[in-house]
Design a protein that fits this description.
This protein has 262 residues and is of the alpha/beta class. It is built from 11 helices and 8 strands. The chain has a 5-stranded mixed sheet. A 3-stranded antiparallel sheet has the order 1-3-2.
C-alpha cells in the first residue's frame, strides 16, 4: 500500500461517524408550511356558482357554465377547486352533462343550510328546466332594468312553517323591487315550470290557488309542448278578470337535456 493510500484509509477510518438525523429534526429542517396551503380562495363568481347550486338542488355543467359565463374547458378547474375545498361534489347523474351539488360544508359556507343531498334522479329534468328558466329570464332586458331577485322553491319551502307546507309551492317567486319607472315595481310573481301535463282539475286547483287575492300579481307558466294545452285550457276557464294575470310561454331550449354527442 502506498503512503498516499495509507493516509486516505487512515483518515477514512478515523473520521467520526455523523449522528443519524431523527425524523423530528428532519421535519424541523424543512421550510415551514404555509398556514393557508389548503385554503381555496373564492372569487365572487365562485360564491355565485355555489349559491346557485345550493338553491337549485344542483346544476348541470352546461347551465352552470352559462350562469358563470365560462367555457366548458374553464368550468372544470372551477368545479375542481370547489371539490378541493370540500364545498361540492360532482358526478354523472343520468344522461347528459355532469352535475355539481353542495356538500354539508358547502351549505354551511354559503349560509343556505339546506340538506346536503345528491339531486334526486326523478327530479333531474325538472331541476334543469327551472334553472334554465331562471337563466333565460335573467338574460332579458326587462330583468336587467327591473333588477328583481329570484326566490327559489328551496327557499320557499324553508320559509314556510310545517303547518303551511300542504299548500302548493311554486317553482320560484320573482320579487320586483320598487324602482321608479319599473312597470312591475313592488310586484311578486309565481313561476311554474310544466314539463308533463297534469290532470286538468289539479292544474286548475293550483292555478286558482296561486291567483288567490293579494298573493301574486302574475303567475308565469313555462311549458313544454306536451303540457301546454292543459295549462292553456285551465287559464281559459278562469274568470275574465283573472285571465290576464296568467302568462304562458314556451320553455327555452336549454330547459331540455342535450342529446349526447356521437
Amino acid at each position: 500500500m502506498t503512503a498516499q493510500a495509507h493516509d486516505t484509509a487512515t483518515r477514512t477510518a478515523t473520521r467520526p461517524a455523523r449522528p443519524a438525523r431523527s425524523a423530528r429534526s428532519a421535519r424541523s429542517a424543512r421550510p415551514p408550511r404555509r398556514a393557508d396551503a389548503r385554503t381555496v380562495r373564492l372569487s365572487q363568481r365562485d360564491i355565485d356558482g355555489l349559491l346557485l347550486c345550493g338553491e337549485h338542488y344542483g346544476a348541470p355543467y352546461d347551465l352552470l357554465g352559462l350562469a358563470l359565463r365560462v367555457a366548458p374547458d374553464r368550468l372544470h378547474p372551477i368545479v375542481a377547486r370547489w371539490r378541493r375545498a370540500g364545498y361540492a361534489e360532482t358526478g354523472r347523474l343520468g344522461s347528459g352533462p355532469g352535475w355539481c351539488w353542495l356538500t354539508r360544508a358547502g351549505m354551511t359556507a354559503t349560509g343556505l343550510g339546506f340538506p346536503a343531498t345528491e339531486p334526486s334522479l326523478g327530479r333531474l329534468a325538472h331541476i334543469r328546466a327551472v334553472l334554465a328558466v331562471r337563466l333565460w329570464l335573467a338574460a332579458s332586458p326587462v330583468w336587467a332594468a327591473g333588477r328583481p331577485w329570484w326566490h327559489s322553491e328551496r327557499r320557499l319551502r324553508a320559509d314556510r312553517p310545517a303547518a303551511g307546507r300542504r299548500e302548493h309551492v311554486p317553482d320560484a317567486e320573482i320579487h320586483w323591487p320598487s324602482i321608479e319607472g319599473s312597470p312591475y315595481a313592488g310586484q311578486v310573481w309565481a313561476v311554474e315550470v310544466e314539463l308533463t301535463p297534469k290532470a286538468a282539475a289539479r292544474t286548475m286547483r293550483i292555478m286558482t290557488g296561486l291567483l288567490s287575492p293579494v298573493r301574486y300579481a302574475q303567475v308565469a307558466y313555462l311549458t313544454a309542448p306536451a303540457a301546454r294545452s292543459v295549462v292553456t285550457r285551465a287559464a281559459g276557464s278562469l274568470p275574465a278578470g283573472e285571465q290576464p294575470r296568467v302568462v304562458i310561454r314556451e320553455l327555452p331550449a336549454a330547459a331540455f337535456t342535450p342529446e349526447p354527442q356521437p
